[in-house]
Amino acid sequence: MSNQPIAGRYLSKMRRWIHDSSTFLKNGFGSTLVVNRGSSYLPNDTKWVLEEAGSVEIDNSCESLFYKKLIPAGFTWPEASLCILSNAYLTGDQGQVFQADGSLLQICPSLRHLPLKKIRRPISLFAKKIPGTVFHLTGVDHENHGHFLFQHLPRLLAARENVLLKKEFRVLVAPGHVNWQLRYLQYFGIQKEQIVEGSNGTVKVEHLAYVPTLYGSSYLCNPQYYRQIHQAFCSAPIPEEASLKGEQHDIIFISRFDAPNRKLTNEAEVIKVCEEVWGKVHVLELSRTPLPEQIRICRSAKIVIGPQGQGLSVLFFMEKALLILLEYGHTLQPLGWCAAYRDVAILTGNKCVRLLSQSLPYSEGNWTYEIQKFQVDAQRLARLFPFKPTTP
């Protein structure tokens, strides 16, 4: 192992300790943190409206057909705005935003979950200085693929159409997440040299471009951004090395077997039933499959099946397919991540049905889908939504 990663981890721990100690002392000795909540604290020439608030109703006919009752779907989203802040400070991997005078700017609801005493205060002496215009692409749950694609990437897509970002700019991502987030960002024209890694300490940015989270009544925002994401992945040419890797698969199962928790513990039995009902199933382990190959496999699939979780973000790679989302619980929830995955699948031209396990999670969020029930559910789905196999 090289010394560079070891040195980097050591410096990261030191920065964290210095900032946490400084914040603890300031809180302990009564140093008041000035908090500005809302965009009214911004000068008029630093904020621009990108889009108005809106709403959408979704055709949830497949789920309604399966459950023999009307299941409405839809959501609202708020006004989207872009802020350009001069000499702004960011702290921590979520990028808490401080104005030049040291006041905390809380215009994004997603960054209000931490108690004020736990928010690291900037230390200008140790700040990593970044010149030019930089877009803030970190925030709460930045480390999760689902949150990144559904909630953070749309912020960038909304902002880059503004004339202020037509010129050269860079993108700041959370420390330690450059590699996997870059793999997605390259599909949207963002190259490696445009990526700036943040810090768990202090970053000072000459011009910070910042769009607060765009979601409203649901976890989702304006559908146009999900269609842009879907289009970028599905229209991209498949690299030669990926296209040579093999056959087309009609039925895909998205495995969570290697996840640390929230696993479908009887996944193997569920897959066996899928094969009995639909035929040969290709089990896709995302952690072992390069992104271009994930896209290739899912683009040609007719049916994609998987337990709830961030792995179902592959719906962005599907084209006119059926997503079968396995969900624990006793009732279909109108809000939540399972509803969000369903809605985006439909909005991007696919079909979706959520299947309820009628069971609840136990240790570490793991759960099971009772096999006899799944057999009944799968057979009913096969009758309602037949498909023509690619090969006999």
Characterize the structure shown.
It is a single chain. The chain has two domains: 3-54 and 78-232, no CATH class; 245-384, Flavodoxin domain (Rossmann fold, 3-Layer(aba) Sandwich), CATH 3.40.50. The chain is 31% helix and 22% strand. The protein has ten helices and 16 strands. Strands 2, 5, 6, 8, 9, 10 and 11 form a seven-stranded mixed sheet that branches. Strands 13-12-14-15-16 form a five-stranded parallel sheet. A two-stranded parallel sheet has the order 1-7. Strand 5 and strand 6 form a beta hairpin. The longest helix is centred in the first third of the chain and has 26 residues, at 3-28. The protein is elongated, with a radius of gyration of 23 Å. The relative contact order is 0.12. The model has no long low-confidence stretch (mean pLDDT 91).
Taken together, the total number of domains comes to 2
Largest sheet: 7 strands, mixed
From the spread of the alpha carbons, the general shape counts as: elongated
The amount of helix comes to 25-40%
- Beta-sheet strand percentage? 15-25%
List the uncertain runs.
Answer: none
What's the end-to-end separation, in Å? Answer: 50 Å
* Cα-based radius of gyration, to the nearest Å: 23 Å
Mean pLDDT level: 91
Oligomer: single chain
Query: How many helical stretches?
Result: 10
Structural classification = alpha/beta
Topology as H/E string? HEEEHEEEEEHEHEEHHEHEHEEHEH
User: Can you count the beta strands?
Assistant: 16
